[in-house]
Amino acid sequence: MSDFEDYGQHLYWLAIMGEPAEDAPWGWQIEGHHLIVNYFVLGDQVVMTPTFMGSEPVSAVSGKYAGVGVFEDEQNLGLRFMLSLAPDKQQVARIGPKEGRSDNLAEMFRDNVTVPFEGLSGERMVSAERDALLMLIGLYVGNLKEGHAAVKMEEVRAHLDETYFGWRGETGADAVFYYRIRSPVIFIEFDHHRARRLAFGADAPPRAHGRQDAERKRLRQGPAAAALSQAPERSVARSQGQIDGLAMLLAEQVGSDAHRRFDCGASRSAGLPPRRHAASPFPV
Fold it and tell me: What ranges in the chain are assigned the alpha helix state H?
């Protein structure tokens, strides 16, 4: 692939909304292909959503990022959780077959989408299953710094009975699948996509395009967020010399794992990966 007009490590933009302050709402956004992070700040409160992370392919076999893979933890832990459920509970968790190129509901152009509470509820899970579900949710919430993640996880635990785990697709070792975690305080989607831009041919691996969606907070809720929505936006395209600075900003705010995803999302590989294309957004 050589489309550097639409794809490439320079095609990311940083926007600052409002004026950074200790006691007034402000925020920043970094946006580019396969990466969108919205970060809202009010005092010691932060919201890192909506967030989307994706990749095509999900692993690099050549170039400077050879050997780097993304979304393996989200993929494998989600599958492991599904397989840990008893057959009758797996059946309840299934919300339909894997259909089409994408099963994500909270994607672009779907603002204010209504998503049903469906699948297996936390109320029907035994203690070990509830703990495993919390571990899976924590993988996403853990993109926040430790202190803020701990606050969010307490909120998640308080609504665990009302949390639903839904699954589409198969459960084999190389299965293509989608899963969703939905509660009054969190919304997570993980989805495998077929390759869209890379030319894999007839032997395209099933997970060539992956996508992961996590916490989606509506920043327009509440007076502080309303003030932020009225704040002026300053957007600056970044040059080669500033890319590392943006990556360091992300790493500082959301952890080294996000830094790795940022680097991988901004890179391109000429090789054909054994695993495919993945995608991901963040908690409602």
Answer: 72-84, 87-93, 127-141, 146-158, 223-229, 240-254, 256-265
**Could you tell me the pLDDT band of residue 3, with boundaries at 50, 70 and 90?**
low
Q: What is the amino acid identity at position 283?
A: P
At 173 the pLDDT is 87
150 pLDDT above the threshold of 60: yes
Three-state secondary-structure class, residue 245: helix
Domain hosting residue 188, numbered range: 12-281
Q: Which of 68, 26, 33 is nearest to 53 (CA)?
A: 33
Q: Are 133 and 122 in contact (CB under 8 A)?
A: yes
What is the pLDDT confidence band of residue 81, given thresholds at 50, 70 and 90?
A: very high
3-state secondary structure of 228: helix
The whole-angstrom separation of Cα 124 and Cα 211 is 28
Residue 7 lies in a domain: no
For residue 236 the two structure tokens come to 């600056």
The answer to whether the CB of 284 falls within 8 A of the CB of 218 is yes
Name the residue among 30, 46, 64, 35 with its Cα closest to residue 246.
Answer: 30
Residue 1 lies in a domain: no
The tally of domains found in the chain comes to 1
Rounded to two decimals, the pTM is: 0.71
* 175 contact partners, CB below 8 Å, separation of at least 6: 79, 169, 206
